[in-house]
Design brief:
This protein has 897 residues and is of the alpha+beta class. The protein has 4 domains: 280 residues, Transferase(Phosphotransferase), domain 1; 34 residues; 284 residues, TolB, C-terminal domain (Neuraminidase); 280 residues, Neuraminidase, CATH 2.120.10. Helix content is 18%, strand content 35%. The strands form 16 sheets. Strands 1-2-3-5-4 form a 5-stranded antiparallel sheet, with helices on both faces. Strand 55 and strand 56 form a beta hairpin.
């Protein structure tokens, strides 16, 4: 059950959850209605893996201390408790933004505003410290700005969590405090923290408000912590001269390494920020005076040393530099850290970190089996999961490698690579592979949830702007072009077996096919494109940015790139680091045909005939000829996805379609001489003996297509993007009469898996209008003359018996049958079970296309697995500094006579 449902059930009568507001490292925040007091509140729910370690009773006891805090600059705590095992606490819902939100938007605060906010926070801290409460997690995300006034959030929550967890915080995989704002004593894991730790954290926040960055920055959380422990912060006036001397002096004192060298109280820190005469012995003024009184001998010695150092530096600068070596190595990770077979990997520009999609390995049973982003550092033996990235499907690094944008469900979030919590920056995002690209002009481009529209937002988030849209193409595998010029992407008709690399020019809002029949093109700074061909080879070709066209012939980089789902397992960073897998990647399942009688007994049709179904999930299909002697089936072979005819039971197999477009979902014409099939161009008709050419019955979007028994109508089911109501809908066209589709079942819901009765008078289909999948029947072609529900308690993928006196469908893996009494009006008996599906593909229970058929003698023809298929495991191949090799190759070619 979803967390929202659990909460609403457990908190019924007290609070009503409305929607999720955001997620952090320790908790998820929900907007809710306080039913008793008729007000909006924010409910924070601790992550399940954290709650499991804490224990409910101790957490509630500890959090009572913080509930007693009442101060104008402290966001109060209304309530706390346990809801079905989830630990939560309730705060007022206040419209505003955090310091982090404003920093993301504006980078720096005005000096007066920053000092005022810091003094307000210090006032709140002083009050809490006098009541024995240390915050422990002061950071820009925990200070809300409401009408310009500071409100400290989560006050004492970190204390409550730490006290409740005892020494077991490491079991959760989470940490208290954010690295950039930790005091040195926090960074070294000292247990007994004092008020001076909060003063240090507040000083770090003020430093960032003034300078635009916290006192210490680095490429990883561990590096930040080391700097906090060992380095000295750069004086803030070196970065911003307008900062008053007393403010700089107060900051320097508050950021001292030893707690005893800082202010005794937050009140003293606030007073120093307001006192224009405040100074310390280590302030910039005193330091300058000491420097002026230094010995002239020392000055002379330093001058001589400087001359010598300048000469050495000049020699080093002028000396020819050797290019960095090209490094190639295989990266085999332990099973529990292994990349997902259908995932991806990204490398930072310098190759020091690899981000990849793996499997969630945490304690939460609810998250078992979902994906999660992992990070492997070059200098580390093991990879680590990135908290808050569960159920991710696409990701992109910022040009400076400081941030990671990732798609989680329908949300686009970003995560600081140095450590922190993810924040939502966009909604309604496609979860197709490569649906996000981070451009070097400070914008992010993503594919909208309809899979066909490009949106662009500032990297800080905000309203999206439509850049380009397609009526029929799916868009995936986005990569940026330099200078914010545009993006490269894959554009394909579902099922995206074959597509083209397209360049979208933002300046002209136009699209240009760059490489037909290819995938994943990435522009690299040498003026080239790396891309993957239909044959799964990675190639490099010169590319002209002005005209967005290839210049010259491609050169093969490797001839074996693994395909993960619909995307190659390959990425190239701007610095020339390549991460890839070799080989086919996934060894597909093989199947055999089986007859299944009404009692569920299975009999193999032809043990010598095993096959692969069409590659794209859900795009398989087979159908029995009217006399039951032949089977039309979509098969995957080395030459692609096509329709084949199998003579039953042990006859030969012959190909029907062999065009450049994949074909699937066959249906027979009533005369048994032709079959229809779905391609990315529409619905075609082809002779069953394979002779002749395709006849296009309908040119346009179609996910299913079947002829009426009299051959006058073509019934089509369209996908959500092409349907007029927003869901999958069913349409019809009278062949030779209509030029446009007529709606047959057109609603806000999904309708699919359609089937016409043998007499052509009734249309059965599956719909989710009840909130689950159910089977309905309408008269045909006058579908608005009635609607008859058939299934009880759910039903999917209906099909008529050859006599029309029964309607079969699946319910929870069981074959159901309902007796049919012809009308008018038509009547259906109560559905009853025939048999459970064991080992057959139809045990999916739901589908957008019916994965079985019924013979004239009442038997069912299905498939079952004879070879389960598996992921052919292969290590990640990493190539660092590969651009140097490419440059050398080009230089050699130019020098050749």
């Amino acid at each position: 059950m979803h967390t929202t449902d659990v909460l609403n059930s457990a908190l019924a009568g007290t609070y009503a959850i409305e929607r999720e507001l955001g997620a952090g490292g320790m908790a998820t925040v929900y907007l809710a209605a306080d039913l008793k007091h008729d007000r909006k509140v924010a409910i924070k729910v601790l992550k399940p893996e954290l709650a499991a370690v804490l224990g409910a009773e101790r957490f509630v006891v500890e959090i009572k201390t913080t509930a007693a805090l009442q101060h104008p600059h402290i966001l109060p705590l209304f309530d706390s408790g346990v809801a079905d095992g989830l630990l939560y606490y309730v705060m007022p819902y206040i419209q505003g933004e955090t310091i982090r939100d404003k920093l993301n938007r504006e980078t720096q605060f005005g000096v007066e505003e920053a000092v005022r906010i810091a003094r307000e926070v210090a006032d709140a801290l002083d009050y809490a410290h006098r009541h024995g409460v240390i915050h422990r997690d002061i950071k820009p995300e925990n200070v809300l700005l409401h009408d310009g006034r500071a409100m400290v959030m989560d006050f004492g929550i970190a204390l409550a969590v730490s006290a409740a967890a005892g020494g077991r915080m490491t079991e959760t995989g989470l940490s208290l405090g954010t690295p950039h704002y930790m005091s040195p004593e926090q960074a070294t894991a000292e247990k007994d923290l004092t008020a001076r730790s909060d003063i240090y954290s507040l000083a770090s926040v003020l430093y960032e408000m003034l300078a635009g960055d916290p006192p210490y920055t680095a490429s990883s959380a561990q590096a930040v912590i080391m700097k906090i422990i060992t380095d000295l912060a750069r004086p803030v006036r070196d970065l911003r001269r307008s900062v008053p001397v007393n403010v700089a002096a107060a900051l320097a004192k508050a950021l001292e390494k030893l707690p005893a060298d800082r202010f005794d109280t937050a009140k003293e820190f606030a007073a120093a920020l307001a006192d224009p005469h405040f100074t310390t012995d280590s302030s910039p003024t005193h330091a300058a005076a000491r420097a002026a009184g230094s010995s002239h001998v020392v000055t002379l010695g330093l001058g001589v040393a400087l001359i010598l150092m300048t000469g050495v530096a000049g020699w080093l600068l002028l000396r020819p530099k050797s290019p960095p070596p090209v490094l190639r190595y295989a990266l085999a990770l332990p099973e529990e850290q292994a990349p997902d077979p259908a995932g991806f990997a990204l490398a930072t520009s310098d190759g020091s970190r690899i981000i990849y999609l793996g499997r969630y390995r945490g304690p939460s049973a609810a998250l078992a089996g979902v994906t999660q982003l992992w990070m492997k550092r070059r200098d580390a033996l093991t990879a680590i999961p990135l908290a808050g990235t569960e159920a991710s499907s696409a990701a992109a690094l910022s040009p400076d490698d400081a941030w990671l944008a990732f798609v989680q469900g329908a949300f686009l979030r970003k995560l600081p690579m140095a450590g922190g919590t993810p924040t939502v920056i966009a909604e309604h995002v496609s979860n197709l592979p490569g649906s996000v690209a981070w451009l070097d002009d400070g914008s992010i481009v993503y594919v909208a949830s309809n899979a066909a529209t490009l949106m662009r937002i500032p990297e800080t988030g905000g309203p999206g702007k439509v850049i380009w849209s397609s009526d029929s193409l799916s868009l995936l595998n986005l990569t940026p072009l330099p200078s914010g010029r545009g993006v490269l992407l894959d554009a394909c008709h579902a099922p995206c077996d074959q597509g083209d690399v397209v360049a979208i020019d933002f300046g002209t809002a136009s699209a240009r096919v760059v490489i037909p029949g290819a995938t994943y093109a990435r522009y690299i700074p040498t003026g080239s494109l790396v891309y993957v061909s239909r044959e799964r080879a990675a190639l490099v070709v010169p590319f002209d940015l002005r005209s967005l066209t290839m210049r010259g012939s491609p050169v093969t980089m490797t001839d074996s790139v693994a395909i993960a789902g619909t995307s190659p397992f390959l990425s190239v960073s701007t610095g020339g680091t390549i991460v890839m897998r070799r080989g086919a990647g996934i060894e597909q399942q093989r199947y055999e045909l089986v007859w299944v009688d009404r009692a569920g007994h299975q009999t193999v049709v032809d043990s010598s005939f095993t096959f692969r179904l069409t590659e794209y999930a859900g795009n398989f299909g087979w159908a029995l000829s009217p006399d039951g002697t032949r089977l039309a089936i979509g098969l995957n072979t080395e030459s692609g996805d096509d329709i084949w005819i199998k003579a039953l039971p042990r006859g030969p197999v012959s190909r029907v379609t062999s065009g450049p477009r994949p074909a699937s979902r066959p249906r027979w014409a009533s005369d048994g001489r032709s079959v229809t099939a779905v391609t990315d161009a529409g619905v075609i008709l082809h002779r069953a003996d394979g002779t002749g050419k395709d006849s296009v019955l309908w040119r346009g979007n179609a996910d299913e297509g079947l002829l009426s028994p009299d051959g006058k109508w073509l019934v089509i089911r369209q996908g959500a993007r092409a349907a007029t109501s927003g869901g999958r809908d069913i349409f019809g066209v009278r062949l030779g009469v209509d030029t446009a589709l007529q709606p047959l079942v057109n609603s806000p819901y999904d309708e699919y898996a359609m089937a016409l009765s043998p007499d052509g008078r009734w249309l059965a289909y599956e719909s989710n209008e009840t909130g689950r999948s159910d089977v309905f029947v309408r008269p045909f072609p006058n579908t608005n003359d009635g609607k008859f529900p058939v299934s009880i308690g759910g039903g999917a993928v209906p099909l008529w018996s050859r006599s029309g006196r029964e309607l079969f469908f699946l319910r929870d893996g069981t074959m159901m049958a309902a007796a049919v009494t012809p009308g008018p009006p038509i009547r259906f008996g109560e559905p009853h079970p025939l048999f459970e599906i064991r080992g057959a593909l139809a045990e999916r229970g739901t589908a957008w296309y019916t994965p079985w058929d019924v013979a004239p003698d009442g038997r069912f023809i299905m498939v079952r697995s004879v070879h389960p298929g598996r992921f052919v495991d292969a290590p990640l191949i990493v190539m660092e500094n590969w651009l140097e090799e490419l440059k050398a190759t080009r230089s050699a070619k130019r020098a050749a006579p």
